[in-house]
Amino acid sequence: GGGKTGEKAEDILYGLRHRGASFFGAPGPEQVILTGNATQALNLAIKGMAGEGSKVLISGYEHNAVTRPLHALKHRGVKTQVIASPLFDRERFLRNFRAALWEKPDLVVLTCVSNAYGWILPFREAAELCRRAGIPLILDASQAAGHIPVGIMPGVAFLATAGHKGLFGPGGTGLLLSSGEFTLPTLLEGGTGNDSRNPEMPELPPERYEAGTPNLPGAAGLGKGIEFVESVGLSKIRSHEMELSAHLREGLWRIPGVVTYAALDPRRQTGVLSFNLRGVDPMALAQKLAEMGVVLRGGLHCAPMAHDSAGNPGGTVRISPSVFTRKGEIDEFLYRLRGAIKT
User: pLDDT tens-digit profile of 177-188?
Assistant: First the structure.
């Protein structure tokens, strides 16, 4: 639309693009594409980059937002190779990753952080290896953004992230950031508010990939969320989450029967922590805790491959402290967990 309302809408969108480009190191605001979620962003990048007969390399810790789009591309002859590695074993992962690159995959898709276990995969080293090999890399930063430094770096073609997690944006928001090296085919076509007589979508981003009415409330909220993260500072957020995670681990280790999945080096894990109670279904335990007022999640967390790779095909119970969580709340959780186990 025109007038002040239209100008305000443009200001919101440009403000988000500018802030997103600065936060993630994109070449410019035009390389920041607003999506409905990380899943949409990953579909756009994966389906645009994985051509007919492509071989795609992924980790064993990917979310269904990566594995299902790749599965759907089997009709194109797209083949997926999984880099096997034990949980938290960076050295084994990188060794297997280097070996897999020798087989000349066409594309690499890699999560920065496992949503199920909080494991920080060696994505920076992987990006450098992809750069040297000349193989484009798509990063899924959904569990990293707002928690640890991550962005467009040499070797990274695209970076996808959710808006509602560590960036504190509203649900139904996501971003796809581009290095500017590749032009993707469109996933959706429709109105863009300009060049309306052209039957084709615009050639240039971001309008090329943003058909239809934009989510202005979501964009405004996501922009404010990124602003909040910048105001607090990633180092402060990271320090707080590591402190909480250490306190949580120590408490869980003291509870008989609880198996905790924690990295020996806490620097290799975000605040996300998974655990199980021996002999108890994780979903049943999560339900019991929910009845006691504890908000967490049990099961496969939309990442069955990650649990298979970690040797937990039945899944886990996952707890995710944030910058707003306090030590006293961790203590209260541990108290209620003991109560749930007794009953």
Answer: 999 999 999 999
| The predicted structure's pLDDT at residue 3 | 61
DSSP one-letter string for 126-158: HHHHHHHHT--EEEE-TTTTTTS-----TTEEE
User: For residue 290, with 0-12 CB atoms within 10 Å meaning exposed, 13-18 middle and 19 or more buried, which class applies?
Assistant: middle
CB 169 within 8 A of CB 149: no
Integer Cα distance of 21 and 28 in angstroms: 6
Copy the structure tokens of residue 228.
């909040």
Say which DSSP state 44 is in: H
Residue whose pair of structure tokens reads 């500072």 in the numeric block: 233
CA distance 141 to 148: 10
Task: Provide φ and ψ at 289, rounded to 5°.
Answer: -65, -35
The class (CATH top level) of 3-232 is alpha beta
Sign of torsion, CA 203 206 210 213? negative
In CATH, 234-342 is 3.90.1150.10: yes
Q: What whole-number distance in Å separates Cα of residue 113 and Cα of residue 269?
A: 8
Map out the domains of the chain as residue ranges: 3-232, 234-342
pLDDT in tens, 37-80: 999 999 999 999 999 999 999 999 999 999 999 999 999 999 99
Collapsing DSSP to helix, strand or coil, 229 comes out as helix
pTM above 0.90? yes
Q: Which residues pair with 108 in a beta bridge?
A: 57, 137
What is the C-alpha separation between 141 and 139, in angstroms, rounded?
A: 6
Peptide bond into 206 cis (omega under 30): yes
> CA-to-CA distance for 126 and 5, rounded, in angstroms?
45
Q: Is the peptide bond before 149 cis (omega within 30 degrees of 0)?
A: no
> Which residues of the chain, if any, have pLDDT below 70?
1-6
User: What is the helix (H) or strand (E) element at residue 107, kind and residue range?
Assistant: strand 107-111
Give the chain's end-to-end CA distance (angstroms, integer): 60
**C-beta of residue 75 within 8 angstroms of C-beta of residue 83:** no
- In terms of DSSP bridges, do strands 32-35 and 55-59 run parallel, antiparallel, or are they unpaired? unpaired
